[in-house]
Specification:
Rossmann fold; binds adenosine-5'-triphosphate; binds magnesium ion
């Protein structure tokens, strides 16, 4: 059954998530829900488990315990092949530490997810160029990641996450390297996308001004998520 049309039912939910890295218990029973069209800010101290939570919800890392339910499907139980297919069609991820492909130019990095979905190169590059323009990195299309500034690379990564029109965008500190103008540009584009396309956005940030763009905020503390107003 699909939940996409019903905004009262979460599109994505993590329930009682537990995840350890070696002896570090990054998540100890964290629960969060994300609705279509909603921007949810996830905040918390450095090391509180924000990236771990994002990776579990995005199906990149399997939790040790608990459930991840996306559109009625248990992601944590999905075979790897179906999981990566679903991630390609439905999710866009901006990693905290880059992960652009160094050999490809900016525009080809953004075009790649479209081409993996079957688009032809010329069409994919054109749409990629439009997203780069939206994020203010026109003119850097043919540069490789090593030739981009940190903020330019971050915006290329955002364009790559959004270009396929995903149902959910997972963005891990997507504005960490940006000045205030570029931050505003990027967040405005995210808010637009959420409103226009019903895209759900999980926005990890340590910046209260960035979190202010969200509809709701949860804070991670001791490996569990609490509503920000309770945590404050
Ligand atoms: N691959 C790993 N191996 C071992 N420990 C890890 C690994 N990844 C994360 N951790 C540990 O898990 C805890 C949570 O890390 P996580 O990266 O989720 O935090 P975070 O809230 O995203 O922090 P930051 O704000 O600094 O990005 C930390 O104590 C960290 O040291
Ligand atoms: Mg992190």
């Amino acid at each position: 059954m699909s939940n996409r049309g019903d905004s009262s039912v979460p599109l994505l939910a993590g329930r009682d998530l537990v995840k350890a890295h070696g002896r570090t218990e990054a998540l100890r029973g964290a629960s969060v829900e994300l609705r279509a069209g909603e921007i949810l800010a996830v905040t918390g101290a450095s090391g509180s488990g924000k990236s771990t939570l994002l990776h579990c919800l995005a199906g990149i890392v399997r939790p040790d315990d608990g459930a991840v339910v996306y559109d009625g499907v248990r992601l944590d139980r999905l075979p790897e092949k179906r999981l990566s297919e679903l991630r390609r069609t439905d999710f866009g991820v901006v990693f905290q530490f880059g992960q652009l492909i160094p050999e490809l130019t900016a525009v080809d990095n953004v075009a790649l997810p479209l081409m993996l979905g079957g688009a032809d190169r010329a069409g994919a590059r054109e749409r990629a160029g439009e997203w780069l323009e939206r994020f203010g990195v026109r003119g850097q299309e043919e540069l490789r990641p090593g030739e981009l500034s940190g903020g330019q690379a971050q915006r290329v990564a955002l364009a790559r996450a959004l270009v396929t029109g995903p149902k959910v965008v997972f963005a891990d500190e997507p504005t960490g390297a940006l000045d205030s103008l570029a931050t505003e540009q990027v967040l405005t584009a995210l808010v637009h996308t959420a409103r226009e396309s019903g895209t759900a956005v999980l926005l990890v940030t340590h910046d209260a001004q960035v979190a202010a763009y969200a509809n709701r905020e949860v804070r991670l503390s001791d490996g569990a998520a609490v509503p920000a107003e309770v945590a404050a």
